[in-house]
């Protein structure tokens, strides 16, 4: 199967091509290595099995050929032998020497046993190679005597031992009867074993080139399998970087082709789902932005009216005065909510801009506290390191400090401590309170939009967006903001921004 990754071209294709998938790094025991080793293992097992079977068949053939030739020739020699009974040792030795010289496929050492008489063609009357089992079979008298043979290894040397009993034929029944004389032939099988060893050596020497030759198709097979896998990896990496239009061209009908088609179907479904989600999110953001913008004009008029009503509330009856003040307070809250919604909409639309300047960080914090009238030491206690210069957007840093201090005053207990100091090349701003702290289950969600720790509490003094706006402003500065509980009680928010 051949596969190729492709993507649709569009206005953003040039920008997207910058994020290329990284090259596959070789792994010591990666898929390629395992495939090659498996292929070589199969080849080695095949070569070994073939060599073993060939060795076994060839060994049996070589030994059986030598064995059959020797047994047949020795039997013929014994059948043609004329011996007078009782045997004459000197005459019998002459016959044994003649038989030994005529041995096939090579000369034998011949031994004869008749009762206690032992005669041989060598300088030893008996052989230690002849086993008791072969001797007992050849000298059996309870049945018709049979010739026998054995392959024996003595002191590392292989031998073929043959036993043929001499018989005579009865004139009455025409059956063979043993005479008591048994002839043995002993032949070394060194030449046959040498041939077998040479065959084993040749098989072993041929196995290494065979494995080397098998390495070539192993590498080709591994490459054929890894190419579509690599392209699938690149396609998955492209999708992870947001290129949901990535597709793979697949040919063939094997499992890898099915995998490529499944990937394409999943990618198409994912692209469709993400497009719908993005469209819905864009509509929601546009709706919030449009509604917030449209509410600003009537809210401005309502705020102007409520200010006038607040001034005249003292001349009204108590019920009407309470209603007027409630309307004024709720209108103010609505105005804050609308402003926060518009601010968060700018962040969502990535329209928020950062206008930094080198400022005195402590002076910025003091101005924030003074503008909100948080100058009472019983309410807010500042600990500001002097002379710390930082590149900040004064307006957005003011929002960060104001939101954190206001949140501490509303949900914690006074006094609220504001600390500012430099830590290396980082500006650290801490806002802590003396309240009960934040529930551990709530901590991961304190910066979520409209999150309420108490689900039963439907209304609050804030908009529910203050900490979310704080988080976005800190991120815009390239910093971080975290929430935690102090060991001695109370919550602490820590802002870290580069100097």
TrEMBL record:
<dbReference type="InterPro" id="IPR036097">
    <property type="entry name" value="HisK_dim/P_sf"/>
</dbReference>
<keyword id="KW-0808">Transferase</keyword>
<protein>
    <recommendedName>
        <fullName>histidine kinase</fullName>
        <ecNumber>2.7.13.3</ecNumber>
    </recommendedName>
</protein>
<keyword id="KW-0472">Membrane</keyword>
<keyword id="KW-0418">Kinase</keyword>
<dbReference type="InterPro" id="IPR003661">
    <property type="entry name" value="HisK_dim/P_dom"/>
</dbReference>
<feature type="region of interest" description="Disordered">
    <location>
        <begin position="1"/>
        <end position="26"/>
    </location>
</feature>
<dbReference type="Pfam" id="PF00672">
    <property type="entry name" value="HAMP"/>
</dbReference>
<dbReference type="InterPro" id="IPR050428">
    <property type="entry name" value="TCS_sensor_his_kinase"/>
</dbReference>
<feature type="compositionally biased region" description="Low complexity">
    <location>
        <begin position="1"/>
        <end position="13"/>
    </location>
</feature>
<dbReference type="InterPro" id="IPR005467">
    <property type="entry name" value="His_kinase_dom"/>
</dbReference>
<dbReference type="GO" id="GO:0005886">
    <property type="term" value="C:plasma membrane"/>
</dbReference>
<dbReference type="Pfam" id="PF02518">
    <property type="entry name" value="HATPase_c"/>
</dbReference>
<dbReference type="InterPro" id="IPR004358">
    <property type="entry name" value="Sig_transdc_His_kin-like_C"/>
</dbReference>
<dbReference type="InterPro" id="IPR003594">
    <property type="entry name" value="HATPase_dom"/>
</dbReference>
<keyword id="KW-0597">Phosphoprotein</keyword>
<dbReference type="GO" id="GO:0000155">
    <property type="term" value="F:phosphorelay sensor kinase activity"/>
</dbReference>
<dbReference type="InterPro" id="IPR036890">
    <property type="entry name" value="HATPase_C_sf"/>
</dbReference>
<keyword id="KW-0812">Transmembrane</keyword>
<keyword id="KW-1133">Transmembrane helix</keyword>
<dbReference type="InterPro" id="IPR003660">
    <property type="entry name" value="HAMP_dom"/>
</dbReference>
<feature type="domain" description="HAMP">
    <location>
        <begin position="223"/>
        <end position="275"/>
    </location>
</feature>
<keyword id="KW-0902">Two-component regulatory system</keyword>
<dbReference type="Pfam" id="PF00512">
    <property type="entry name" value="HisKA"/>
</dbReference>
<feature type="domain" description="Histidine kinase">
    <location>
        <begin position="290"/>
        <end position="499"/>
    </location>
</feature>
<feature type="compositionally biased region" description="Basic residues">
    <location>
        <begin position="14"/>
        <end position="26"/>
    </location>
</feature>
